[in-house]
Automatic annotation (TrEMBL):
This is CRAL_TRIO_N domain-containing protein. The lineage of its organism: Eukaryota, Metazoa, Ecdysozoa, Arthropoda, Hexapoda. Signal peptide: none annotated. InterPro entries: CRAL-TRIO_dom, CRAL-TRIO_dom_sf, CRAL/TRIO_N_dom, CRAL/TRIO_N_dom_sf. It holds the Pfam family CRAL_TRIO. One of its GO terms (molecular function) is phosphatidylinositol bisphosphate binding.
């Protein structure tokens, strides 16, 4: 199945359309989201943010990016925002003024990251990161892949459907040890963990594939 899927990803377009009634029902069951809970959580998070030393927008659309993955617990959302701020500070040299066009070669010229136009049966975004024989580290560095993954997450969390359903990242190690990206598969898996940015509010599952 994966052999076919890996060859079929299309262009990635951001879907910022409001959640459907069906999706809102998922949010209610999985994330505790109701109009009442959402309104109260947004108001409380605004207060917490104002009293903190963090510098983030406080409009509802932005705050939902942090409230949904933390199931509308304002204190947890604020902690996530602080984690993001610390992450961005730690990797400032790599991420400062980063734009989607800056990571385009990773997708277009080398095809190392593929994002599907369709979602899985749970409504999750699907992405494949090629870390086996297809990855030539002389042409694409780990920093470039890191920046690309960060950019994807930063765009994906703008989607209400992804905020609610999350995403699945498939790490493709096919041919590891036989191509330009040689090495032990355990080392490749560790590289995958190190490269995947943890500083964004995106619920995701990782799946290694050989």
């Amino acid at each position: 199945m994966f052999e076919t899927v890996l060859k079929m990803p299309g262009p990635f377009e951001i879907d910022r359309s409001p959640p459907s009634a069906e999706l809102l029902e998922v949010a209610k069951q999985e994330l505790r989201e109701t109009p009442e809970v959402r309104a109260a959580a947004v108001e409380e998070l605004r207060k917490l943010l104002k009293a903190s030393d963090l510098n983030f927008p406080d409009d509802e659309e932005f705050l939902l990016i942090y409230l949904r993955p933390t199931k509308f617990y304002p204190e947890s959302a604020l902690k996530l925002m602080r984690n993001v701020a610390e992450f961005n500070k730690s990797y400032k040299d790599l991420l400062h003024n980063l734009m989607p066009a800056d990571v385009k070669p990773v997708f277009v010229d080398h095809g190392l990251i593929n994002i599907f136009t369709n979602r899985d049966h749970k409504g999750r975004r699907l992405m494949v990161v090629h870390m086996g024989e297809k990855w030539n580290t002389k042409e694409v560095t780990e920093d470039q892949i890191f920046r690309a993954l960060y950019t994807i997450q930063k765009l994906a969390v703008l989607e209400p459907a992804t905020q609610i359903n999350g995403a699945v990242v498939i790490y493709d190690f096919k041919g590891d040890g036989h191509g330009p990206r040689k090495g032990n598969v355990d080392e490749r898996r560790q590289a995958a963990a190190d490269l995947h940015p943890g500083g964004l509010p995106a619920a995701h599952e990782g799946c290694p594939l050989r």
